[in-house]
């Protein structure tokens, strides 16, 4: 059983607090290259050091900024590997899946279905509301973006999944000895960390429904499937295809995407439809394909002490 793989008598919750602090420190270390690059450039090229988050994000060309942002996740995943192995005496595999080997077919299936859905809905929206978009495509910057995305975005999304649906899911299970509490807590924390995204400022706190709902969806998928493979594929597709397809002046990532959304953001169907309609449909598809059963026990059941 996936969540039980982290349940050990010596693996008390205080270790997860220490481990989480170490991961936060690793994240800070990972941000040093970005800060250093800005300081170096401002000193030697006479440019003013940015005083706002927007100024920081727009200081370099967008592909350079994207690299510098995503590099921090390399530090975090290395920190996670150290924490899991040395602090908890586990392997990265043990917080990834309950299967003997990582099931790449699950990752590819989840990646493919969400990629196709994302591409399809984006194209429909473009042809239905062409005035809301401009063609942003520039061949060379786009090809560089593709290269950056293929290499670094899966590292970013996998790191987040390892932490939330793997490490912290098992950590909260050690604390609560049930499954509903880890599912709820990891979803709330995952959503809460997106609170400072520029989208929240533009659209309002209601968008947190989408972020927390996405965390809840990924947590349900992980618990029902006894592993993170489907969540890994979904998250990679969501960020990679999203970065390649569309950008806007108010989104967290500014990219050389194919389209640029120039409409004024608002809280509407884009927030509610995924959480209330699309995610349940995906759960149904996954459940039929992988023959999920015993939903109540897997999502809310107690965990016997070890």
Automatic annotation (TrEMBL):
This is CAAX prenyl protease 2/Lysostaphin resistance protein A-like domain-containing protein. The lineage of its organism: Bacteria, Pseudomonadati, Bacteroidota, Flavobacteriia, Flavobacteriales. Keywords: Membrane, Transmembrane, Transmembrane helix. It comes from Flavobacterium segetis. Residues 142-241 form the CAAX prenyl protease 2/Lysostaphin resistance protein A-like domain. The chain crosses the membrane at residues 16-38, 64-84, 104-127, 139-159, 180-197, 203-223, 230-247, 267-286. It holds the Pfam family Rce1-like. Coiled coil: none annotated. GO terms for molecular function: endopeptidase activity. One of its GO terms (biological process) is CAAX-box protein maturation. It comes from the Bacteria.
